[in-house]
Amino acid sequence: MATTTLRSLSLAALLLAVGLVGCNGDGKVAIQGTATWNGEPIEKGYIELQPIGEGHFASAEISNGKFTVQTSPGKRLVKVTAEKVIGQTEPTERIPESKPILFQFVPPKYNSESKYEVDIAANSPSLDIKLDGEELKPQNGISAEDRRKMNLQTSGRR
């Protein structure tokens, strides 16, 4: 009889552990996602999934068009930023290595002014974010923000 009780308890503990792993114990779902810009993987970027109504805020880095994030099921507002290298800083005495100059090229309609919504399902472990449009271009070759960063890098201040 003790053996039967022990087996029942072991089985119950195993089922509880399996159940908690599937939903992470906090109601969140593990999402494997892809992010593309005009059909090409976003090399380096950032994604935010903001709750519309109830839910958890989630964010992740995008690397080579892929991201992994945990969030609760429900509607989310998607915001994406992505950078590309547009030049290199000149080495200085204070900073002897040249550094890449990055430019955020995704237009505001996908980040600060985003209206892009997705519905995260509890049983859907993947999310494909497909963005398209005309990318932002640096004015006069380099944006004001990137110019400011270059000046800080070359002056040695951060």
List the helices and strands and how they pair.
Elements: H1 2-23, E1 29-37, E2 40-41, E3 44-51, E4 58-63, E5 66-71, E6 74-88, E7 100-104, E8 117-120, E9 126-131, H2 144-155
Parallel strand pairs: 1-9
Antiparallel strand pairs: 1-2, 1-5, 3-4, 3-6, 6-7, 6-8
Explain what you see.
There is one protein chain. The chain has 158 residues and is of the alpha+beta class. The protein is 22% helix and 39% strand. The protein is built from two helices and nine strands. Strands 3, 4, 6, 7 and 8 form a five-stranded antiparallel beta sheet that branches. Strands 1, 2, 5 and 9 form a four-stranded mixed beta sheet that branches. A hairpin with a 2-residue loop joins strand 1 (29-37) and strand 2. The longest helix is centred in the first third of the chain and has 22 residues, at 2-23. The chain starts with a helix and ends with a helix. Residues 3-23 have low confidence and may be disordered.
Query: How can the largest sheet be summarized?
Result: 5 strands, antiparallel
Extended strand count: 9
Would you tell me the structural class of the helices and strands?
alpha+beta
Total of DSSP H or I helical runs spanning 4+ residues: 2
CA gyration radius, whole angstroms:
22 Å
User: Which runs of at least 5 residues are low in confidence (pLDDT < 50)?
Assistant: 3-23
Helix content: 10-25%
What number is the mean pLDDT? 81
Give the termini separation: 70 Å
Shape: elongated
- Percent of sequence in beta strands: 35-45%
Secondary-structure element series: HEEEEEEEEEH
